[in-house]
Structure formats: structure tokens, C-alpha cells
Amino acid sequence: MPPVKKKTLKVLPDYRDGNGNPGFSLRRWDGHAKQYAWAPVPITDDELRIQVREPVRLSSEPKYWLYRNRFVVEEGAASMPDDFIHLLETVVESTEARHDLLRRESIVREKAKALEQRLSEEGVPLQMRSFELENCVRQALSGIWPKRHSELAISYPEELTLRVKHAVLSEEKSLDKLRREVEAFENFERIGATPREPIPEHIRMFVWQRDRGCCVKCGCQERLEFDHVIPLAKGGSNTERNVQLLCEACNRTKGAGIG
Ligand SMILES: [Zn+2]
User: Fold this and answer.
1) Among residues of the chain, what percentage have pLDDT more than 70?
2) 173 Cα–ligand 1 center, Å
3) CA atoms within 13 Å, Cβ hemisphere of 101
């Protein structure tokens, strides 16, 4: 059983209910209604508290995690719920004609039907069509069994937890970076559109990066302007050492002081 691969984890958007708590629904088999239906996955207060520090596994099927208000899906992991495999074993083991090739396809269909029946009776949540069930039965009859979820969970519990954390934290980091970049572009465009002094673009770009898109006096990120430390009129130049970012308010204050 190979270790869990990073690519098998997918971070879902941050879902909140009306109270700001994470809320999540899964498509589950409804044994009574005999159909799949969306059902909310209950999250306890304890889990809500813990998930701020440690990933919490949400469903009995170890496929969904909650960490820092984000849901993580174990995707593409070639494993099936233990309940499912148990039923598959029950259905397939009881066959008396494993190698009866002539009857094989009819046996497959028969067993798949029986399996479907058992799954709905036991309320095992699965989204599988008839042909997928038949495939499982066909393979099991040849001795190829799906992996159990519990193997995935139990063989590498620490690694899986680490990978869930890593997936969420990387997602947060890359979203932060995106947000900052978009902000910088928008601010830069706004400033560039109304140049007060003909400062070359590469100088403005350099100053913007150096001053991190903030007013060097008060640190705010609103209404920024490129300011000449020594005004051009007083012999200042357009070099990066003489240009800084100031917000409109700080720039006006400075102007008043000099004037
Ligand atoms: Zn300022």
C-alpha cells in the first residue's frame, strides 16, 4: 500500500452557514427513499474547536476533513469504505461457481444486484452505478479486491494529517499572494493613470515593490501617490532614492510643511 499522495487531496472552498460555522453536505444513499440525497454532515462543537489546530476527519467514511474552516477531500484514492468491502466479500464469497466462465456474466449481474440490495439495506453511502458495482464484483471474482479506506487511514495516519495541513496552508498562502498581487495591480493602475510627475515606469515599479505598496509614513494602502523626497523644483531627481510612496493625506501634510 503506497503512501498517500498529495494530489489525492483537494481543498474545497470555505463554506459557512448563517452563524459563520462551516457547513457541509454529502450526497448519501437514503435507504428509505431509495435514492441519493444531499444530507448535511454534522459537525460537533468539539470538532469545530479542534479543527482550528488539527485536521478533523468528518465522516465515518474517511474521505472528508475539516481544517481551518476548509474542507479537504481525499480524492482519487483507490479505496472503498470498509462497509462496502465487507458486503462485497459477503456477496462474492458465497458464490459456489467462481470459475464457472459460462455462467460468469450472469453471476456477476446477480451478485451486483444482491450487493446493491445489501448496500441500501445497510445504508452504506456510495455513489455507484450498476455497471460500477458489476465491475467490482467481476474483479473480486478474479481475486482483485478494492483497497479498504481503513488501510489508507490506519497505515499512514500521521502522514495523512500532515498532508491535509499542508494542502490547506498552501491554499491559504497562495490565495493571500493572489489577493496581494491583485491589490497591487489595481493600486498601481490607479496611480499610473494620473501621474503627477513623469517618473519612469521602471522606477515606479521598483519603488512600489520596495515600499511594499504602503505609505512609508503611516503604512496605509489607500490613495497612494509617488512622492519626491526632495521636490523636482528644489533639485530632486527621478531616481528611486528620491521617490517614495505616500498616501494622499501624508503627502498633503508634507506639502503643507514644506510650503
Ligand atoms: Zn500615509
Assistant:
1) 76
2) 27
3) 0
Q: Are residues 68 and 153 in the same domain?
A: yes
pLDDT tens figures, 217-239: 999 998 999 999 988 878 888 89
Which pLDDT belongs to residue 104? 77
Q: Which residues surround ligand 1, an ion (CB under 5 A)?
A: 215, 217-218, 247, 250
Alpha helices for the chain (secondary structure H): 45-50, 82-93, 104-122, 130-141, 149-155, 157-193, 201-210, 248-258
Domain that residue 213 falls in: 198-258
Amino acid at the residue 75: E
Domain count, the chain: 3
Q: How far is the CA of 220 from the centre of ligand 1 (A)?
A: 6
Ligand 1: centre distance to CA 191 (Å) = 15
